[in-house]
Model the fold of this input.
Amino acid sequence: MSRIAVTFTLNGARRRVRVAPMKRLLDVLREDCALTGTKEGCGEGECGACTVLIDGRAANSCLIPAVHADGATLVTVEGLARRGGALSALQQAFVTMGGAQCGICTPGILVSAQELLLRSRGRVPGDAEVREALAGNLCRCTGYQKIVDAVRAAAREAMPARARAARRAPKARATAKARRTAKRARRAR
Amino acid sequence: MLTLPRFEWVEPRTLDQLLDHLAAHAAESLMVAGGTDAVPNLKHRLHEPRYLVHIGRVEELRFVRDEADGLHVGPLVTLADLARHPVVRRDFATLTRAASLVAGPQLRNMGTIGGNLCLDTRCTYYNQTFFWREALGFCLKKDGAVCHVVPQGKRCVAAHSSDTAPVLITLDAEVEIRSRAARRTVPVESFFVADGIHNNVLAPGEVVTRVFVPARARARIGGYQKLRPRGAIDFPMLSVAFAASRRDGHVADARLVVSALAAKPRSVTGLDALLADGVLDDAAIERIAQAAAKQCRPVINIPYDEDYRHAMVPVFVRRALREALGLPPRAAREVVTA
Done:
């Protein structure tokens, strides 16, 4: 069967691969591009472990023939980190808040959350909004609350400093004090 | 891991190229736009086309136009874009709701309104791997000759599972269908037929080119209620759509559609008689709920208990009607009758 040339932008770099038409985008990312961060869970579009951004929109790469992605701009979990490999605010929040446990769902959840953060730039999405944005990602470990907390913490982090100050202005001193106390408690441990 | 079968990828850029291809190879082609339903089905070998025709690059099929006669929507508009469209949100809130209840966010980003309308029917004995189906001796929808749902059944009863179709029916929407030779328009209600093997009127070579919601549906009140095991991802095991126009406290043009039970969405009949003088009060809601339950006969075509689905018909009809009136889902005392 004849192979088809497919060109796309992957995590900021142009890539050109030749693929069989029935090869899924997920397989091309993992096998041809050696980016194994994107996982396969169910292979049927239920679990979201294979989520990647296609032209800024979260989609299940296990349901997309690679040829479908010709000309697209793709972002995988490997593309979220900052230049040099430092974790992004979102990734760091997952580490800090315990949003990742066994880790198989984490790449997909990070990518779905990234779409939400790009969409809701400048404000912190509510609990329900985060849950709705992550409704296509299953996690069997965490019970989701820590994931939701981590996404919201990352959104707060991403807000411009002035907006952040305005948000907490009424209780600024109290929260700052609470944070200092918490920090001290952590150190003591 | 389930692999895709072998196929040739065909990617028309214009509607003309698409219609030309279909005119020559309709029987060996499967059209795919978002691929969210077609791709899992391909993995299960439910379709084995020689050509996979990706219509996602036919840009002339991607549009939302708000005109005086109504809303024109191209079949390639994704469910996510449809649900976010300001005009749809303002004038057709139930359509927004139905579109945003389909599957999960990733699937709505890829899945299209055209694909959701033409969604293949679903059944316990059909949506399985080739291995699974072969072990049971296949079924009459694919590869076999018997129905495992209705013993001795000669007609496929796989469930119509589109969320947007019931709502579009209540809004008197129409679909425009084109082939190389002709162009026709059919109401969404007559688009579906009671045959689970191929549950719509599309003939080989035909393609849906437009969904049209008439302007008279703009001011309608409405509700859409979907029963599913989880709050996301799942197909409906029961769905209820309602719409009506409201003038000084009275409702007219009431339409109620119950779906996900059989191959075709069911329009509940006799609403005008049940709505004495167009008054939609608690008593009328109850009459309609009971009438709907009488008219529906679920079968065990999807893996959920049919008695439960039947018992939920009046409950979800009540909720849909109350949603249309802006009331909370439950009255002070809700009677559940089997």
The interface with chain A takes residues 1-9, 11, 35-36, 39-40, 43, 52, 54, 56, 80, 103-107, 109-110, 231-233 of chain B (CB under 8 Å). Chain B has a mean pLDDT of 95.
